[in-house]
């Protein structure tokens, strides 16, 4: 899949998240009278909004990689951080709204939409943290924050000037995932392109400090369907500011770089890696 | 004729209300509803002599989502008689500065400044500013005609406000229209921007009817364009902000809807014929608001965004008023439940489909995938079944970017070996040939081998393909 295709896929998934958020928020509105207080009601509104967007956003990397385990854990982590983010977003957004709106004079609609967009920006940031927390990756947290902020600001602005909430939420979802993907592309320290077998053509972004490769589903890069790959963990890739290195998890395991068996190798672009039957090309993007 | 009937009706109603015990919700402050679920009601409760009633027992508050089905408020009511005296009242005074304000009190044009309505209005304002000096009340001043002009922010300083008031001068004809409803609409935003927390009162003084610029001049209004404001919009905006409007007709011509707007925000309408009467009206408005007491209660939660409320004292009951419970996500609109469920199902199904799709294309022929920097497009070159020539000129089967000038000679050749059923790469002349970053002269190829000829990178792939 090309980079632009990936960004497109992320954006479509964001639209689905917006659609689900619209439906969930609508359903919660139906149950409004059962909440006992408007505070609780607004908390549940924020949580359900966060749940929908956060869950789909969390599952997106698993979908791109075709990795079911990653889809499910991503969905779960995304949903949890989304709920938390939705609630925090409601409070921060609301207090910002009150503070801002109170201190400005009469403002034209564009300015008022911009102020609302700032609140959505905060919300967007929180919704995009799930994948970073799931993978315990500083990089992912960083571009989650940047992507969420940018997407929330732009999507939120459009949401406020559009009169349709359905269209608005879909655009908000798209904007958050679009900028998330864009930031991921720009933050990534290169990709491993799978050259053969069941995962051929997939690009695995080196976007966290440490990645494990193996044929078990618990690995960051799960090489399912390749002979000669150790289940638990076969090789480890370490991403540091001075460079990207690969090494076998145990000295008994074989890892080849450019057809040469290695114990530890610093990767440069265009290097060809072989682990069992699986082959990869280390590319810029 | 209609107007006279309306005036008589208002007079009868006023007399009637004076003649009996009366309770009314004059103001609602629902700004605390999101944080503490509390709503403040400002209540005017008078006996048949019009004096404020002091007893605090026997009050009941009712809420309703639709104005017809009422639910009693279960929580205890907190009653504060001194709220407005203690916290002070925020007044926004709107002064009509249309052309007719410079006629005399009988509506005749005059050059004598002392006779002009404006002079009387200014005098009454001076008296009013004098009366607030010992209180915590705050006053802001706006003049309106074609334009809406904030002359003085909220202040307790008499001199500051009066100094600004004296800058009001007779407008030119273009500016002399009466944008009454538009000005009320704009005044509704004033307290929100000031951060005013206590009682919020707008007092409008007008000597004529709503007379919008666009409608009667034909040109676009410099700020409102073609928009014509309605009394309903003014009521809605004032109520949303918890502002009570008091209106004063100053002169013979009266706007037919102004009294109704005031009434629907919990306020009243008055007539004043000269400066002295006007000063008395200002004072009685202020006294009435000071006499209000504040009833704080814990609000119920309803599905509607607008909640109606009324208060009862013994056998008498107030008219219903309403407030808005704020929703961060805006109004939900009325989307039918089945439609919401369908949308939810659609989104889940769409997501499920995405998780099942394989996003990589499969190619059923042996091929080379040429790698472009940036990965924006991919170029696929199918391999021939005998020999595939790779070189720097256009005539080669696979054209690559060379390191030197284009050459007729092939840089590399890929041949198919029928016996081995495998492809083999043979290095040519001119460009270095590498497989998996190792220089080769002849090499059997496997899927995933990365070939580099000159500066061009390509991936060999014959996986799952049928050659013959």
Describe this structure in words.
The complex is a heterodimer of chains A (285) and B (468). Chain A has helices at 3-30, 38-65, 68-103, 109-127, 130-134, 138-161, 165-187, and strands at residues 191-194, 203-205, 210-214, 221-222, 235-240, 243-248, 255-257, 260-262, 265-267, 272-275, 278-283. With 285 residues, chain A is of the alpha+beta class. The mean pLDDT of chain B is 86. Chain B folds into three domains: 20-73 and 299-361, no CATH class; 85-290, von Willebrand factor, type A domain (Rossmann fold), CATH 3.40.50; 367-461, Tumour Suppressor Smad4 (Sandwich), CATH 2.60.200. Chain B has helices spanning 2-18, 33-36, 83-87, 117-131, 158-165, 180-187, 190-194, 213-217, 231-240, 258-264, 275-291, 337-356; strands at residues 22-29, 38-46, 59-64, 71-72, 78-80, 89-96, 138-144, 148-155, 199-206, 244-250, 269-272, 293-298, 306-313, 316-317, 321-324, 367-370, 379-382, 387-391, 398-399, 410-417, 422-427, 433-435, 438-439, 442-444, 450-453, 456-461. Chain B is α+β, with helices and mostly antiparallel strands and 468 residues long. The longest helix of chain B has 20 residues, at 337-356. A six-stranded mixed sheet of chain B has the order 8-7-6-9-10-11, sandwiched between helices. In chain B, strands 17-16-26-25-22-23 form a six-stranded antiparallel sheet, with no helix packed on it. The chains are: A alpha+beta (285), B alpha+beta (468). At the A-B interface, helix 1, helix 2, helix 3 and strand 11 of A face helix 2, helix 7, helix 12 and strand 26 of B.
């Amino acid at each position: 899949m090309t980079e632009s295709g990936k960004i497109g896929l992320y954006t479509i998934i964001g639209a689905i998240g917006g659609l689900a958020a619209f439906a969930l928020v609508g359903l919660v509105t139906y149950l409004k009278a059962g909440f006992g207080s408007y505070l609780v009601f607004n908390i549940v509104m924020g949580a359900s909004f966060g749940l929908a967007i956060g869950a789909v956003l969390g599952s997106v990397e698993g979908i791109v990689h075709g990795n079911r385990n990653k889809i499910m854990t991503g969905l779960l982590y995304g949903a949890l951080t989304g709920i938390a983010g939705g609630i925090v977003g409601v409070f921060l957004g609301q207090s910002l709204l009150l503070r801002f709106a109170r201190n400005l004079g009469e403002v034209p609609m564009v300015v008022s939409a911009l102020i609302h967009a700032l609140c959505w920006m905060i919300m967007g940031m929180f919704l995009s943290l799930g994948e970073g927390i799931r993978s315990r990756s500083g990089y992912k947290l960083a571009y989650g924050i940047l992507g969420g902020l940018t997407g929330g600001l732009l999507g939120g602005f459009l949401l406020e000037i559009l009169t349709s909430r359905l269209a608005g939420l879909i655009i908000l979802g798209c904007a958050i995932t679009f900028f998330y993907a864009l930031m991921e592309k720009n933050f990534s320290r290169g990709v491993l392109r799978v050259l053969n077998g069941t995962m051929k053509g997939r690009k695995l972004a080196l976007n966290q400090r440490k990645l494990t490769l193996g044929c078990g589903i618990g690995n960051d890069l799960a090489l399912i369907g390749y002979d000669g790959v150790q289940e638990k963990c076969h090789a480890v890739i370490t991403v540091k500011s001075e460079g990207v290195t690969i090494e076998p998890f145990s000295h008994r395991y074989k890892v080849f770089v450019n057809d040469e068996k290695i114990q530890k190798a610093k990767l440069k672009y265009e290097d060809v890696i072989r682990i069992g039957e699986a082959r990869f090309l280390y590319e810029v993007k | 004729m209609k107007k006279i009937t309306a005036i008589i009706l208002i007079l009868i109603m006023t007399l009637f209300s004076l003649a009996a015990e009366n309770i009314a919700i004059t103001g609602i402050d629902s700004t605390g509803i999101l944080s503490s679920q509390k709503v403040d009601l400002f209540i005017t409760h008078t006996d048949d002599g019009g004096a404020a009633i002091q007893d605090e027992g026997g009050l009941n508050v009712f809420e309703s989502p639709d104005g017809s089905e009422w639910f009693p408020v279960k929580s205890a009511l907190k009653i504060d008689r001194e709220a407005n005296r203690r916290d002070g009242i925020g007044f926004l005074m709107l002064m009509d500065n249309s052309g007719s304000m410079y006629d005399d009190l009988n509506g005749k044009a005059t050059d004598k400044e002392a006779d002009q309505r404006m002079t009387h209005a200014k005098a009454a304002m001076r008296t009013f500013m004098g009366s607030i000096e010992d209180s915590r009340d705050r006053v802001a001043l706006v003049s309106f005609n074609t334009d809406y002009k904030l002359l003085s922010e909220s202040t307790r300083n008499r001199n500051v406000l009066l100094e600004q008031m004296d800058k009001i001068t007779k407008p030119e004809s273009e500016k002399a229209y009466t944008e009454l409803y538009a000005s009320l609409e704009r005044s509704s935003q004033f307290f929100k921007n000031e951060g005013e927390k206590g009682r919020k009162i707008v007092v409008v003084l007008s000597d004529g009817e709503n007379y919008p610029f666009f409608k009667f001049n034909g040109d676009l209004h410099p700020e409102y364009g073609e928009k014509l404001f309605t009394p309903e919009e003014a009521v809605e905006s004032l109520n949303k902000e918890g502002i009570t409007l008091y209106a004063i007709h100053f002169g013979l011509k009266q706007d037919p809807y102004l009294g109704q707007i005031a009434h629907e925000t919990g306020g009243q309408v008055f007539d004043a014929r000269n400066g002295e009467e006007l000063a008395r009206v200002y004072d009685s408005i202020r006294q009435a608001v000071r006499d209000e007491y504040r009833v704080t209660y814990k609000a119920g939660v309803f599905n509607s965004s607008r909640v109606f409320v009324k208060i009862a004292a013994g056998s008498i009951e107030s008219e219903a008023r309403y407030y808005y419970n704020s929703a961060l996500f805006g109004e939900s609109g009325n989307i039918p439940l089945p439609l919401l469920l369908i949308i939810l199902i659609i989104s889940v199904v769409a997501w499920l489909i995405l998780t099942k799709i394989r996003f990589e294309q499969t190619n059923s022929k042996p091929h080379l995938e040429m790698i472009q920097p940036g990965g924006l497009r991919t170029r696929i070159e199918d391999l021939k079944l005998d020999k595939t020539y790779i070189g720097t000129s256009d005539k080669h089967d696979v054209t690559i970017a060379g390191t030197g000038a284009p050459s007729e000679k092939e840089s590399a050749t890929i041949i198919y070996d029928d016996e081995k059923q495998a492809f083999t790469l043979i290095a040519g002349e001119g460009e270095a040939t590498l497989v998996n970053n190792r220089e080769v002269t002849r090499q059997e190829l496997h899927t995933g081998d990365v070939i580099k000829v000159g500066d061009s990178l390509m991936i060999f792939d014959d996986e799952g393909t049928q050659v013959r």
